[in-house]
Fold:
Amino acid sequence: MGLKPLISYPIHLAKSIEEIDRVIVTTDDKEIAKIAKENGAEVPFIRPVELADDETPTLPVLQHCVKYLEEKENYKADLILLLFPTCPFLKKETVLKAINILKEGKCNSVMSVEEDWGRFWKQDKDSIIPFYPKNYVNRQFYKPLLKENGAIYFSKYEVIMRKKDDTRLVDVNSLKYIIMNPDEIVDIDTPFDWKKAEERIKNERLTMD
Structure:
């Protein structure tokens, strides 16, 4: 049995969650649109060319989708959950946690992060200097930094549709976060990332068999 297309993972995950009303894929690729439909997602439009460039930020893509649904279907998405196909190991319980946090109404956005226990340095002219932690101490004596990992972005309608130059997907002034488990974190951005994810999927299938 061959590996599933990456686009199928967030689709199946979203469709397994009762709280999610609609699962919509925005793409400029007809083959991806076909695969998305076969896996149960809606593809109500093919993304315009002007929003299909490699350098196009994600926010205007989301804004186009939300605006399309409003104008063409009279459907307003009060809460917008963005899931990328590059995070195939994201778990249902993590998404449910994000949904519950935002439904509590005490923030405008929820974002997934991961703990990073690295010791960081920054460039200073021709040298580098300690950035975090300032003093060299054992790991148990400092807190990790939190790294945005691109798995979950969840925001209210007003955050996504704001008319500002800010292209962030969350409201940084009203934001809560979820620390993801390490076993969920595989962000596929390079061929090496893809190879790691492919091997993991194969191993998990062998274990299940």
User: Anything to note?
Assistant: The chain has one domain: 8-208. Helices lie at 8-15, 30-38, 58-73, 92-103, 157-160, 191-208. The mean pLDDT is 88. The two ends are 12 Å apart (CA to CA).
